[in-house]
Specification:
The structure is a homodimer.
Chain A (H helix, E strand, L loop, with lengths): L18 H20 L5 H8 L3 H7 L3 H25 L3 H18 L1 H6 L8 H23 L10 H17 L6 H13 L13 H11 L14
Chain lengths: ~230, ~230
């Protein structure tokens, strides 16, 4: 069909999307690309540049980096929650647990920004954090079931998954394209260390509140800072 | 003794150190502090600021960041090599191996800059890299002995220690002061995963050349770049 032609049965053309909406979509698409490549430390300015919009437009659409993170990663967090749901559906809870670890670490390897998302909290990213909370509840159930089967060590704590993600983020960011599968060996070593019976006792887990504080401070500088010029 | 007074038996006073030498020492001391706090990503400008010297002076003393890294961390790498030597002296090679892992991970936790040093190579940092090579040779011997005792899994590869350091760097940088002991649990999980008999097979190790390339690209941006103004 030639451009501009209308199929006789086609519905009436939609009204043109507003400039605001178009800019918003361009910014989100650009941020998806920049964050995936450079992690959440990438500046708002570099996202604006990639999107081909001015910094003022950028901050008008996304007054804080947290709002941008929310827009970019909420659906990625959906996929993460989905990995937990798949694991919960597995008739063998240990098999489900191992599969979840591999899926979650693979998501980190595929997107440096998402690797960061799993090691930080963004209180202002409402949709993202709501999905994270849901995924967390599912993980706690998954851990309980895997322990009941006797395959997961008894002293395993949900915070061990946070530590795993912090460790994997380090591996993924250090190896990058040069050794893109190195994370698989690390994830497998972790999985084997989680298997019962435990080889020995472990140092205590960090308190959950302390780990939450760590995840708050891990959020890249300025992630929650107000925009320098909201009117711009 | 009052300032300026000379004890009668004291040797003749040393000639004043030159400005150049004093500036060098101030810069190294400042870099030690800034890198320990912020990691090797800290800029040369922030080191100059901390040292209270101009950027031109900074680059006159240290034309490249690699030379500064060399000056700051060569002695830290000595301590690291010493941890390997202590492990090699242990009559129980597995006990020595476990102690080395704990000591090396503790050094990463104590100094974010050194955590980075163990995950990157700096070909221009001659003294540092010579010491690293020596430590590596010792580690290979240590691994061989620990395998001979049957306590270290047969498929353990020296590159697993690099992956461990990359993982631990991620944990240390994410947890920081908020959960300063979290790395201990991670190091213990790794150690248990290394213990024979293996719980199962592992994905292949990255090729050593690939991991070397990863460590080259991990070196913070500009680490080996020539100074913008060597004459300044």
């Amino acid at each position: 069909m030639t451009p501009g032609a209308q199929h006789p049965d086609a519905p009436a053309p939609q009204p043109l999307r507003s400039d605001a909406e178009r800019n918003r979509e361009r910014i989100v698409a650009a941020a998806r690309k920049v964050f995936a490549r450079d992690g959440l430390g990438a500046s708002m300015a570099s996202v604006a540049r990639e999107a081909g919009v001015g910094i003022a437009t950028m901050f008008r659409r996304f007054p804080t980096k947290e709002e941008l993170v929310d827009a970019v990663f909420a659906d990625r967090m959906d996929a993460y929650a989905q990995a937990v749901a798949v694991a919960l559906d597995d008739p063998d809870p240990w098999h489900g647990f191992v599969g979840y670890i591999e899926a979650a670490c693979a998501m980190q390897a595929a997107d440096v920004g998402f690797a960061d998302v799993l090691t930080a909290v963004f209180p202002g990213a409402k949709a993202l954090e709501r999905r994270r909370d849901e995924a967390y509840e599912g993980m706690v159930r998954l851990i309980g079931r895997a322990k009941e089967t006797g395959r997961l060590r008894e002293d395993f704590d949900p915070s061990d998954l946070v530590l795993l993600h912090m460790a994997n983020a380090g591996v993924v960011s250090s190896t990058g394209d040069a050794a893109p599968d190195a994370w698989r060996r690390v994830a497998a070593l972790f999985t084997q260390s989680f298997e019962a019976p435990a080889r020995g006792p472990l140092p205590a887990s960090p308190r959950h509140e302390a780990l939450y504080q760590a995840m708050l401070r891990t959020a890249p500088a300025g992630a929650g800072a107000p925009a320098p010029d909201k009117k711009g």
